[in-house]
Model the fold of this input.
Amino acid sequence: MRGVMLYAPGDVRVEDRDDPVLVEPTDAIIRIAATCICGSDLWPYRGVEAVDGPAPMGHEYIGVVEEIGTDVRGIAVGDFVVGSFMASDNTCEICRAGYQSRCVHVVPMGTIGTQAERARIPHADGTLVAVPATPAPEQYPSLLSASDVLGTGWFAAVAAAAGPGKTVVVVGDGAVGLLAVLAAKQLGADRIIAMSRHADRQALARRFGATDIVEERGRDGVARIKDLTDGLGAHSVIEAVGTQESMTQAIRSARPGGHVGYVGVAHDVELDGMRLFFSSVHLHGGPAPVRRFLPDLIDLIVRGEIDPGDVFDLTLPLERAAEGYAAMDERRATKVLLTV
Amino acid sequence: MRGVMLYAPGDVRVEDRDDPVLVEPTDAIIRIAATCICGSDLWPYRGVEAVDGPAPMGHEYIGVVEEIGTDVRGIAVGDFVVGSFMASDNTCEICRAGYQSRCVHVVPMGTIGTQAERARIPHADGTLVAVPATPAPEQYPSLLSASDVLGTGWFAAVAAAAGPGKTVVVVGDGAVGLLAVLAAKQLGADRIIAMSRHADRQALARRFGATDIVEERGRDGVARIKDLTDGLGAHSVIEAVGTQESMTQAIRSARPGGHVGYVGVAHDVELDGMRLFFSSVHLHGGPAPVRRFLPDLIDLIVRGEIDPGDVFDLTLPLERAAEGYAAMDERRATKVLLTV
Done:
């Protein structure tokens, strides 16, 4: 089969890889219908994270089940499925508490690489969710988004306690930030302030439910949020970048007793204990337990209540993955879908 | 009146101070019945925090109302009251959300100094809670503890989501840590693991409800907690010290999705963003909104259901405050009550 490999920073190749085979009786093999490039794929692409190349790439996927192991019960051959970017058994104590991304038997799908024609899915019963009927290709982008960016934005909004009566600030206008806006809207937030400097992303944020846009960043951005919230700060702040500046901005934008949900992978971030102490915020985040939300997200998509697939602004065939990485790296695209 | 002043690190004096007077119509003047020395008073005493001396000391207090301003409605002259260490109006949006310690009009009582014969209490209606009947002197220690250390330990246990079905770890065996054990017990925790190396404090922790004691610290301490929790970590961890080691130990002792409540004032603490991200914990803390809990705590004490006053292991007259500071600094006492 064909699959994407990262050889070194900036060196993405699509090449022949071995077809996956069942390894554990709980595995499934799926034929991938669509996959995509994640903001987090850019960390190794840019050399911010070390690359032990050639490494398979990709962790987002939708597709059709081709084979199942002998212990797979809930998923059948022929099912059209969406899976989380973290494979989980969904039965351990951590999973049952809703933290499937930290399952005691977790397998990060990025180690398997779903930017490919096929993939082995460990813990198929605990990782995959079948779509009720085979979807039309127009629904692929939205379903694919549920595999990571929608689920991650949703988790961030839940972690930030977004809901009725709340003013929610979203720091970061990448795919996750934009979908966190959508999630906050769905969760019933009164007011959603998107922090963005890009006209196209501002427009999408408004379409997803943002009521206000703040272009300022850092101290100026925090000052604007305070202006908009009677000097108190927001009830809920979503951090979807993962830098020192964005985390600082997020924490300072929240009111005492407010909630900060952070899902940007925190690179070179140090939090000052005393400042955090006196911020009096709730802080929660980490790799999103997408599987917790997946059944509901699929339901919302299938019923046409949300269109998260709108975050994809470039579609390329798998063979042209390298162009997709470059487009995201250069910010010419927010999110790239790869057709398979 | 007589009152405690800190002139410089280690230089505590009891001297004549001006009697307090009503400044705002929302003020009350109370005659203090008992006050005490807080672990946080040791930061300036030890020179860890700068001292702009001579500075009035103390922020914990119980006493009898002697005068009230013209706008005070809920508190009357003659009431025996307990107040929070942070004066709050209890009407602003932040107070109504339960974060009175971050009231928009907050006055830290430490700036007024309650280690004295009398004190002015700002926002009397929002800060003080009257005890239903004048208490017996035997109840003074428990009521006094509610002013800070009990309320702070309680907040930590709530922030750590202690409750039925939960395993709770308490890092720190000072007065706050010990009372966090008591709080976790009252909140219905199944198992409470106190981390302590001192036999007398271990005994008090057990009396307050600890089911297990762990003497190891740091990595070894975390390893013991993992051993005791099927390798997962605790559901709830309370941090009541405020050092890099204790915060690290607390976060690592919690399971993914678990809750860390931290109330130790975080001195020279830096949290690594990436480690925090992958810990997947909920983190919440800060100066405790004691006023939120005060009515219920007073009720529990008056009904004799809890005896938090047992944390006081040295009682001295106000005039001998310097001895009390030295005893706490040298760890000869856990918590010193000053009679007035």
